[in-house]
Every structure is written in C-alpha cells, then in structure tokens.
Amino acid sequence: MNYLRNWLILLLNIVLLDTYSQIQITFPVSRIVFQRNNQNQATVNIAGSYFQQLDKVEARAVPVWGGQGTETGWNAVQEFKNNGIFSGTIQLNGGWYNIEVRGILNGNIITTSTLERVGVGEVFIVAGQSNAQGDQGYSGATIGATDDRVSTINYYDPALNEDNLPFQFSQMGNNTKMAPYNYVPWFWAKLGDKLAQRLNVPVLFYGAALGGLSCEVWRRSAEGQDLRQELPTFVKVAGMPYRGMKAALQQYVTRTGVRAILWQQGESDGSSSGETYYNNLRTVIEKSRSDSKKDDLAWVVARSSRNPSILPTVIEGQNLTIQRVPNVFSGPPTDEIVGANFRADGIHFHNDGLWLASDYWNNYLDGNFFSNSQPLMARNLPVITIACNPNNTTNKFTIITGGYPLYKWSNGGTSNFITVSNGTFSFKGIDEVGNTIFSQPFTISTNNNVTQPVISANGNTTFCDGQGVVLTSNISSGNVWSNGERGQSIVARGSGNYSVVNYSLNGCASPASSSINVNVLPSPFNFINASKSLPICPDETVELFTTNNDGTSYTWNTNETSKRITVNKAGSYSLRIKGQNGCESQSFIDVNFRSRPSTNILADGETTFCLGKSVNIFPQNDFSSYMWNTGATTKTLNVRTDGTYTLRVKDNFGCVSDAITKKITVNALPVVKIKADGVDKFCEGNVVILSPQIQSALGYRWSTGESSKEIYVVKDGLYTLSVRDENGCESTPDSIKLTYIPSPIASITSSENINTICDGSSLSLVSNDATAYAWSTGATSKGISVDKAGVYSLKIKDDKSCLSKAVSFEVFVKESPPTPSVSLEGSFQLHAIPKTNFDNQLFSWKRDTEQLSTISAILKANASGMYSVRAVWKYLLSNNKELLCYSPYSSAVEVFIPYLDNGFRIYPNPNPTGIFTVETIGDSPNAEVAVFTLTGQKVYSGSFSDLKEKRTLDLRQLEKGVYIIRLVSGSYEASSRVILK
C-alpha cells in the first residue's frame, strides 16, 4: 500500500545514510517539530530497530546550536525485550536537537546512531482562501524562510489522496510547498522566521487552504457535501476545501501535535450577513474540534475581507466568531494592508504586502495567545508485541497491537495482529472519527534460528559465602540466565541451579541449557559490638566484642585472640572468625573519638563599660550544660563587675571542652557639681551662667540638649548636667533649680482717663514710676503724646535691671466731620449744609465770636453780624460716654438788620404768582395773618404755629392789586404792603 511504500523509502534512506550502524532510529524523522505544551515541554517518542543482540538502548538530545534547547543526559529508552525493536520517550524543552541513541551489550557500547534536527516548538495549520494558500504569481514562491528551524512537508497534490501523503520534512525555503494543500511558502515562511527568532523554538506549518471559496462553501464541505459539480473551477476533490484541513489534523497532527489553526479568509463572502458568516465559520470550527477529538482546539481568525473594498458584514461575522466561540483568538486586521505594492490586484498580497502580512500575524500571535491557547499534543506511538511461534516454520512470528477500531497493515492485514516469517512491517490504527495513528516500521530478520546453549563453571561450585563462581555460555549474545541476568557470563554467588536460554534477534527462545548446581557454605556469624555508643569522648575507652561463641578461632587486627578487647585509640578494628566448616568471616568497626566541644565566649555588648551597666556573655553555640567560674550553670551570664570569667561546656555526648576565658573591665563614673553665676539678678530677660565644677571632661550633656561646658539660661526651671570622661563613662546627673526674681509690673494711664479721641486731637499716655521706660514708639520718657489709632505698649525696668512684661494700651481715633457750608435763605434764615450724612450729626453756630446755643441745621439770625457754623459728630463710647468731634468752622456769612427794623419780611413783592414767603426776625409763635385791601376790607385771614423758619403764604385766590398784610404774634405786630400783578 502507498503508506507502506513511503515508510520503506524513508527506512531505506536511513539505512543508506548509516550503512554500518547496527541500530537505526525510525521515529522521529529529521526536521519534524513536535508541539510543546504551555510549560515549554513535549514528550517525544523515540523508536527504531537494532540488528544485533543488545541488552539496553539509551538516548539523549543535544541542541544543534548552543542556546537552542536544553541538553539531556543519557536515558534508557528500553531495557531488553528480545524483539529487535525499541520504543520509548524522552522529555524535551523547546529547542532544535540532534537525537543520539546507543546500544549496549554486556556493559559495552557497541553501536550508535544520530538523527539530526528534531524540534520541539510551535505547529500551525493555515487555512482559508487564496490569501492563505498563496500564489507564485504574486511573489509567493520566492519568499521562503531563512531560519533553519522553520519546517514544512514539501508536497502538494491537487488530487489529494491521504494514503499518499509523505512524512518527510524540509526547511521551508524558496519554492517549497506546504502539505497537504498549499503550493507556495507565501508569507507564512516569513512568519515562521519571526516566530522562531522571537520564541527561540522551531516552527512547523501545514497548509490546508484553497483559493476562491467562501465560508459557506467551507461549512458545506465540512458537513459532507461534494461540491465538485457545483464549483468545478475550484473544487477538484470530493470533500474540499474542508478535506485538506481534516487530512492535516488526522494524518499529520496525530504525530506532531498542533498549537492552532490560522484562518485567513473572507474575500468571497460579500453577500453574507454577519450572523450568516458567524454560523458558517462556527460549524467549521466545531467540525475541526470533533475530527481532532479536541473540544478546545485553538483558532486564530484574521479580520480579512478586502475585495478590493472592505466588506463590513464579513468583519462583523469574524468578530462575532471571536467573541462567541470559546478558544477563538483575535487575528490581525489585514484589511489595513492596502496599496499598489501591497496588493497586486487590490485583493491578493504582493511584494511588500507579504512581508507586512507576516508582521501583522507575528504581532497577534503574542504572549497572551500562547499563554491562553491549549495545544493539541502529539499522540504516543502504538504498543507492539512480537511473539515467536517456534513450531510454525512458515509464519514464525505473530505481531500484535490493539486499541483501535480499524487497522491497516503494510501487508494488507486488517485485524489487530498479523503472522509473518520475515520482512519489514508497519501499520496504522484509525480511531472512530478517522484520526490515524502510525506505528514505527519494524523488521523481522531472516535469521531467527536458535540452538541450545552449553554452560561451564570456571572454578569450584561449592564455596564459602562471600565467594562466587563464573558461569559462561558457549554463545556470545542473546543469553538470559535463570536468575534474570543477561550476558555471556555471570558470577553465581548464591546456592541454586543455574541455566541459560538463548534468544534470537526477534525473540525466539532456545531450549534451556543443562543446569549447574552451586552450593554456598555459610560463613560464621560475625558482628563487632561496642560497649558504648561510638564515637567516644577524648580520654574514654571502649570494649569491642563478638557474641559468636561457636568459632574455632578469633583474630583481631591488634593480634589479640580473645572475643573481647579494650581500645583507647581511634582506628579501624577487624575481627576474623573461623567456623566449624572451615569458612571464615571478617567484620570491621571504626572507632573514632569525638572532637572536644569548642566555642568562643561572645558578648551582647562592649566588654569594657562603665559602672552601673552590664553585659551578657555566652558561648557561641548551644550545649547540654555550662560551668562558669562563678558557679553559674546557665548559658548566659550577666556581668556587672570587673574580672576574668572562665567557662567549660559539655555537649550532648558528655564531652567537656577546654576552659575558655573572657576579660571584663568596669570603669568608675565621674562626679560633677553645677555652679551658677548671676542668680541674684535672675529675672525674666536676664541670664544665669551654669557651668560644671570639674577641671575637664570629654563631653557635657545638659537637660537643655546643649553639649557645651557652660550654658546661658534665660528661663527658670530645673537644670541637670551629666559629664562623660575619657572612658566614655557618664556621671550621675547633678541638678539645680532656678527661680525668677519678680519682675516689675508696668501700667499705662491716659489723660482724662479716655482711650478714644477725634481725628486731629492727641492723647497723653503716662507710665508708672520706674528706672527706665521702653515704649513701642521708641520713646524712653515716662509719658508720650499720641494722635494716631493703634496699640501702644510699654516695658519698664527696675533698679535690678529686671524688665517687666509688656503692657499695652489701645488708642482709638474717630473721624471728624468735614467743614459744612452756610447759605442765607431769605432775610434772616441761615442753613448749614453738611458734606457728609451722619446719623448723629449736630451743628455748632457762632456770631462773630459769640457761641450760639442752636445745634440744628437752621439758624434764625436775630442780629446783625458774621455767622459761621461747624459740624458736630457725636459718638457713643463703650463706657457709655459721649465723644463730640468738630469740623472746622465754615466761611462766615454776613447778616445785616437795619436799626429799628420791625423784622417782618414778605416776598417776592410785587408778586406775579400769589405765592409769598413770610419771615420774621423772631420765632413768632401762634402768629395770626390778615390781608386787607387799601380800603380796609379784610380779604384773607390765616395763622402759623410759628415762624422759626420761613413759611409760605398762598394768596392766589385774591385778585390783582395792592394789599396790606398784617402779622400778629403775642405782643409782636407788623405789617407790609404787597402788590399782586
């Protein structure tokens, strides 16, 4: 069958490469890459055949280049099985390795073989349409990988036949194909370079893409539809395009494992909605997971749709797939790759577009993807059993396997076993969903004849215990002795019958040889006892003795011949005893002396210190008991006095140390007394000088924190001082209490005992008696005069130069009113007009130099003279006193009243309106007014309550003419003639 042909070609190549090797590696093959797990490891199957008898096969892996993997030691792949094949596993970290195997016979390495370039890294299946499959017309063939660690299977057959798929890997260089269905390396090769260099592991790609087909077509083919007639241009093989992916999963991935399927597709789905695209792709993903028997098989979906414009519904469907289907990861947004040198026809990647696509994919296959995707690991090789049928000369061997529902043997067999005579055979087991598991090829030799071996003894077969005899087969290889040992010769050391069976290369057994009986005589019991536990302490002795009383002689290496000896020196002691049967035995015992315990005395502080302090001394190590020269038996000794302290310690074995000593020095403390200068004048503000009554010291510590010899003190209180001498010892503190002499008390009084003045005034402040005065103004007199608001403070000093605390006096200054103006309104009425309104504003009038009593704004001038006025503001102070602040006097207004003037004025006269103003020189209370014609007829009468101010008389009801107006107020009477025009 085709797969047998492929295996035989591969096996022939291996044999031709290493014609003289008697061991061959048939699995793995060169440049294969096994998928690693998320711990960067893979279990790699190692299998092959050997063509001469071997006892054991060992293997190891060595990195091709330093830094590209972790070398393993030699590990047994398989112990002897008598069937000509070996199969086992080796655990490898991610890397690029040469696999070495070696065959061992009778303890000697007799054959080796090396398989170069086997990888543990990352494996991917690429799928989709033309931008996943590639095209040499778009520079897709000559963009191969340059890194040696990027692999593929260089094979493409448009008429895909799974039985013809090769299993021979190549470096993914220029013009390589990607089995099973990609025909150029495309940008995947450059992606492989980038991943290999970034991850430092090999990378393997399988190709399962097919150009021109929509996601719906992929879904239908995954459901089993044959689309050849419907889509003859694209689909040449039944089951495509999904069949290519299934072939990669079931024919290749079973042997290598895979990390994920990389999906680059979408240009042919412009008519699909987002939901339709999602449902189609979800079906394909679920089918791939079912066919691979891995429910969480990882997919990476690129956002790809440009044809040549972006198709939003396709991108929507791809995003829905990423969001909704577990273990589907975001791929790159390759629609961003656009331009004449990036897409040849606006659709297919070209030139720089291929390089850029590899960059995009490399960026999205990031650490998050590798950490969270769960790889599908390679399956183990099937287990094969070869059984010899010695009585069947035609088909001498039965080859058996199991565990699969379907078998295909290279000789046409379809059950789980075949019977054959000789030749090279293999099989593939197919599980219930079609996954194919390939066996290693194995060879049945044409020469499997065996003969009964003959054994001989090289010496006496009866001997004392501890001796032995060499038994040898007359056949050099394939010997299995009755005690399970292998080899042409063995050393028999125990009683019994010994025989050997010889096996052919593929496991046919000869009749057993004749037996040789070996009789081992017992040696006398021999064990040396010690009278005490070993080792012993120095100066002790120990008795050595045996409890065997049946010996005929006892000989010690000290030449003593008794059963018990006493020793006091270290050394190796032996005893030889001869038994009744003449056999001797010898035993040994080492007598050693324990080292005396030793230690040092440590201290938890200084060993020279000042009186009043102490130090703990103790041994450096723990012991079972302690003996100080003070009589103390504790581990730690607290020392406060001067002297030399001695210690012996005893360990857990009772051994006592030599005496060790520690010198402790205790220094006396210095004595200090404080002297104070200036105490008799110590009041607040004065200074007392404190100093020690001691010649010298290395350090001073005052309670103030100062460290000088003397300090200057300005505050009362308790002061202490301790001094430190040349030994660093500090005295007991001495103390002194300082108390202030009472300071004088300052007081300030003011003139008139007030604290508030008007603006422009001044106030005298006076101190009580003292020897010196210090005002905040800088004045040093007893009293000062101030005219500004503020707080004035004072300190005084007495005859002891003691300064009082500051006393303050606050002066307030109230604003004085501005100067008002005066207007003469009429004949007698003066009106004071203020410049500022003020709630408690009064006025002070004067005529010439005479002060008038009127305080209102209106003044009736009742005599000739110069009238002026000043504004008065009245302030109510906090002590309920009033303060009056005066403005300057206004400019004077002259008022002239003629001699014998009756003091009655009415105007305007003549009057065109009938409205008159009436004034009198006096206040004229209860004034009566009457108007008469010239004929004496009264035409009007009225009254005013008073004429303190001008009054208005309304005579508009009178006709025009001349009238006499008469005003009477008490004894005052006046009249005037008026004209109404």
UniProtKB/TrEMBL annotation:
Keywords: Hydrolase. Signal peptide: none annotated. The keyword tRNA processing does not apply. Residues 906-979 form the Secretion system C-terminal sorting domain. GO terms for molecular function: hydrolase activity, acting on ester bonds. Residues 122-330 form the Sialate O-acetylesterase domain. The keyword Hydrolase applies. This is T9SS C-terminal target domain-containing protein. It comes from Emticicia aquatilis.
